[in-house]
Amino acid sequence: MDRPSSTPPSLHMAMAAFFGASLMALSAFYIHKRSVDQVLRRLIEIRRAQSRSSRPQREQEELYGGDDDDEYDGDGLREFGSDGGGTAVALRDYPRSSSTSMDGNGHRSYGISSSLPNVAVTTEWFEEDDKFEQSVGYEAQARASSLDNLNFVASGLPSLRKDQRDRENAQLSCSYKRIASLGRIMTPRSPSRNTFESAEDSDEEGPGLENDDCIPFYPGNTESSDNYGVNTNICSLSAVPIRGDDAKCANSETLREAKTGADIQHDGKTGSTSVNLVGNGLTFSNTVLPPRIAGQEFANTEEEEVCKMLCECLNLRKKYVYREEVPPWKAKPLAKNSDPYHFDPVEPSSHDFRMEDGVVHVYASKNDSEELFPVANSTEFFTDMHYILKVMSNGNVRSACYHRLRFLEEKFRLHLLLNADREFLAQKSAPHRDFYNIRKVDTHIHHSACMNQKHLLRFIKSKLKKEPDEVVIFRDGKYMTLKEVFESLDLTGYDLNVDLLDVHADKSTFHRFDKFNLKYNPCGQSRLREIFLKQDNLIQGRFLAEVTKEVLSDLEASKYQMAEYRISVYGRKQSEWDQLASWFVNNSLYSENAIWLIQLPRLYNVYKNMGTATSFQNILDNVFIPLFEATVNPNSHPQLHLFLMQVVGFDLVDDESKPERRPTKHMPTPAEWTNEFNPAYSYYLYYCYANLYTLNKLRESKGMTTIKLRPHCGEAGDVDHLAAALLLCHNISHGIILRKTPVLQYLYYLAQIGLLMSPLSNNSLFLDYHRNPMPMFFQRGLNVSLSTDDPLQIHLTKEPLLEEYSVAAKVWKFSACDLCEIARNSVYQSGFSHEAKAHWLGDKYYLRGSKGNDIHKTNVPNLRISFRHETWKEEMQYIYAGEAIFPEDVDP
Ligand SMILES: *[C@@H]1O[C@H](CO)[C@@H](O)[C@H](O)[C@H]1NC(C)=O
Ligand SMILES: *[C@@H]1O[C@H](CO)[C@@H](O)[C@H](O)[C@H]1NC(C)=O
Ligand SMILES: *[C@@H]1O[C@H](CO)[C@@H](O)[C@H](O)[C@H]1NC(C)=O
Ligand SMILES: *[C@@H]1O[C@H](CO)[C@@H](O)[C@H](O)[C@H]1NC(C)=O
Ligand SMILES: *[C@@H]1O[C@H](CO)[C@@H](O)[C@H](O)[C@H]1NC(C)=O
Ligand SMILES: CC(=O)N[C@H]1CO[C@H](CO)[C@@H](O)[C@@H]1O
Ligand SMILES: [Zn+2]
């Protein structure tokens, strides 16, 4: 554990009081403008009717908007559907949604369905006074008077100063926003202070908090402002201990008071969470924003149903995703060969396997008929997928998830306000480590585009100079040397430059050639691609191997950067695997800093048209049968066996935006799939999943490494893809479509599915960069990392991964702590071995929460990690109604 926390919990009380007081003051200003009778009357009624929760809890809920239930005004979500989402609309929504949120308490106590916004009240308010400031005034009055009822004494507060900037700030007065701006004032300047001001440009959100450098509610609070602007009066009133690192402190009056309600109703669990929380040095205490506490009753049956549905989705994921029975940190380490490509004959096992309905089934022996590793069949999968789709389209669930996500986002901001300096200090005091010498994994990079343009150009020139007479290609009926190829293209080594390489080669070859361009292009630079960027050409991929080696040695030179390269297997013939493996072994391509994933382009329709495949089953056979053969009897494919030890994942690639039909529950089997259309993404995904699942079970039982499913998903196209991936995949690449579906986004958060995002890559060229949801995802706590995708096409510098981090840091104002956290995530998401991760992240990296963090390795403060962990636990408790079970270790 690093530095103990020292923010007094009293800060929260102080904030609360300040907040209340300033609202009072604001309402005083507005009070002559509008009558508040209606509001008051209503509030008093609510108060009388309320019997649900204990008083202090309610205080806080009201104070902070109590926004964590599922009513919503109907407008906030509309923007999720549309791509654009004007800021004007969003702006208009803020006052409205905040008034409903207050109103929400009313719904609860009256037992009115909370999914129906109380239109009468809200629109009445809103239509009467179109102007923001007036509606703000209302809200302020309402809140202030509710505070009044709770005997908040706002004595000795400075009088309100109002100016233009006040009003601007007030316009943004969604209840959380206001907290954010308040807190911001109290935090001294620090490098990470503005981290996310610009992050608000994302599609679904309204305007940013650009203006809150001003101090609207605190004119000259000099006497009360020590480091954090804590008012000493309030401090002594609440009698909260100053230091938070002592677990006993958590038992202070206020904390206990705030908790009693929950504790009495239920077991003691909650009490201990809060103690832990403080013990962890987390200054962001539960008491600020009361979470749904363990076992707390749901406000109404609808909320309960929403949570049940979400639980169901998470449980479905548990049912599908392959997990090792013995996680790697408990298993005995695999024997490591000093020469990674040295083959020792291995005794074959007696396993038998048969392809049945597109899925390989494994039997203990030829005569056995009992399947060893049964996997869910396709009917079952598509049924479950449809269930997820149904949940996704449910209005109640959508609004609930939307609210939770907003809540998470604001909670993170509040955390930053309170703790940014502490985090910064912790980082400073960790010796030696900084952003440059922590481990970063490039989690998503296509091998055929892994060198940058300049590198490739230099390589081509040097080959032209050194080996002009090498016969490199068979074209148009004759063998050609490198020199002749360039002559046929009317190019000399001197002519070549990056622009030429790009411009001319772009359209048919270099441009997205990772997607595998099958079109034969007799004239033009498809020859260059064939010669330099293919491994199954006349020179047996020698050039590609050489340039790959250069890339690998660059990688090793940088020491702290690792990469996971994706290399294609097309499924056109069964020998592809052996060829690929022998290319690796012959050229001894190996690096401690690199591991490999296999990518399968979804091109069935192309092969079908070309006549290479007759049914979808052919592709599955070609891709999976060799893997099973090499696993059961490594001697049959010695090189493949060795190569598979370096392969950690399986990827599906191709343009996701191509239209496709949503699969029904009963789909034809792959052998029956003989039409010329490409199957849907989820169809591909299921069959890859099912075969990999059986393969991994088999490999694990034989003590071999496993291959995880980590496809490209959510780059474009339907949300179906993401729903299928939720059930089947470990991690996904991109995932930017998640911004359109709050339900899946929330589920991805809860399941902590890794998102390997590449904001610079094609689909978000610089103009779109601003709209990339990455910073929003990061704030909300989704498990994101940065990766390069295609350095050849995108990046300009020698260190593309750092370029990616650097642009993100500049555009989105990520602080050093944020960057280190993202880098840490990238190691977790990667498929590197347990030993490597333990070396890079710390011996106990597999423990959840701050126990698993070692700031001396990761440079991420424990404060940040425990904030993420506690926040996630609270969300899980909320969804599981306090019954969530948290394993000690992370998911393997
Ligand atoms: C399988 O059955 C055949 C005949 O039924 C028998 O000869 C053979 O020994 C059996 N093999 C195993 C592995 O049990
Ligand atoms: C799929 O599995 C379910 C339950 O496991 C079973 O009821 C169903 O018959 C199976 N369908 C097929 C086509 O095998
Ligand atoms: C690898 O080397 C072996 C033996 O030298 C050769 O037969 C095979 O074709 C080579 N494969 C590749 C892809 O270079
Ligand atoms: C790459 O960018 C082009 C042009 O903006 C776009 O048409 C294409 O769909 C993008 N590719 C992907 C995979 O998003
Ligand atoms: C991402 O997942 C890893 C492993 O489960 C965890 O340690 C890390 O804290 C997560 N990151 C975020 C931002 O939640
Ligand atoms: C949430 C999840 O399953 N994350 C996984 C992402 O992939 C890596 C590598 O396979 C796993 O270690 C993580 O557990
Ligand atoms: Zn990619």
From TrEMBL:
Pathway: Purine metabolism; IMP biosynthesis via salvage pathway; IMP from AMP: step 1/1. It comes from the Eukaryota. GO terms for biological process: AMP metabolic process; IMP salvage. Binds 1 zinc ion per subunit. Residues 62-74, 198-210 have a biased composition (Acidic residues). The keyword DNA-binding does not apply. PROSITE patterns: A_DEAMINASE. One of its GO terms (cellular component) is cytosol. InterPro entries: A/AMP_deam_AS (IPR006650), AMPD (IPR006329), Metal_Hydrolase (IPR032466). This is AMP deaminase.
